[in-house]
Amino acid sequence: MTGYEAAILDVDGTIVRGEQLLPGATDGLAALDRAGCDRLLFSNNPTRGSAHYREQLEPHGIAVEPENVLTSATVSAEYLAATHPDATVYLVGDDRLESILADADVALVDDPETADVVVGSFDSDFSYGTLWESLRALEDGTDFYGTDPDTTIPVDDGLMPGSGAILAAMGAVAGREPDAILGKPSSVAAEAAIDRLGADPKDVLVVGDRLDTDIALGERAGMETALVLTGITDEATLESASVEPDHVLESLGDVDRLL
């Protein structure tokens, strides 16, 4: 048996890149299973619910149940429903995130001036008009949350702008940063993951490709961390970074040497 009771695994850049399975991913997942290590997939993708990853990974022969998946979208929906049950929310985000919030009984409004809460996220239709409306929504000190801080998103042919870029624009015009980020690496995200796993943080391994989200999540929550070099972070970036992983792996396939 491994010294880890459970593992939190990033998805994009760790298991897949876009729709392509990354080298070593299948071997790494099999090694965790052989070691009796429970696994929770945790993606900062704010446009997908948990069921998406079962559908995405099944063609690659990887079985994932939705209850073993968290995303910044599902964590945000659960948080808003629990902490702001009667609030109206103005969303700058994708249609799929809108549906996930609505399914959690989060009350969404189109009029920015009637909002109690503003949520910023990835929005491929983000425009000057959207930015202006978000400024109106934030003018009176409205609660301001972001789903995730990722400024870029890895895709098959490179990178595309992510939620962090949109939050930066919203924060710049409003003259304030979000009150909280709800996805990785926040305490909200860490608590959601630990609650789902039912494990002590010191017995959990976090594996991911981003220092500022995956590794920072584990570091802040008292978990052990392993950075994989199959995603956004390369060795040059690692050398100059302020966040240091406990382990560095070429890919998820190398996780067996930690078990």
Task: Please write out the topology.
Elements: E1 6-9, E2 16-17, E3 20-21, H1 25-34, E4 38-43, H2 51-57, E5 69-71, H3 72-83, E6 88-92, H4 95-103, E7 107-108, E8 117-120, H5 128-138, E9 143-146, E10 152-155, E11 158-161, H6 163-174, E12 180-181, H7 187-197, E13 204-208, H8 211-221, E14 224-228, H9 235-239, E15 247-249
Parallel strand pairs: 1-4, 1-13, 4-5, 6-7, 6-8, 8-9, 9-12, 13-14, 14-15
Antiparallel strand pairs: 2-3, 10-11
Helix pairs in contact: 3-4, 5-6
Question: Would you kindly provide a written description of the structure presented here, covering whatever features stand out?
Answer:
- The chain has 259 residues and is of the alpha/beta class.
- A 6-stranded parallel β-sheet has the order 5-4-1-13-14-15.
- α5 links the parallel β8 and β9.
- α3 crosses α4 and α5 crosses α6.
- The longest helix has 12 residues.
Describe, in short, the structure shown.
The chain is α/β, with parallel strands linked by helices. Helices cover 34% and strands 21% of the residues. It has helices spanning 25-34, 51-57, 72-83, 95-103, 128-138, 163-174, 187-197, 211-221, 235-239, and strands at 6-9, 16-17, 20-21, 38-43, 69-71, 88-92, 107-108, 117-120, 143-146, 152-155, 158-161, 180-181, 204-208, 224-228, 247-249.
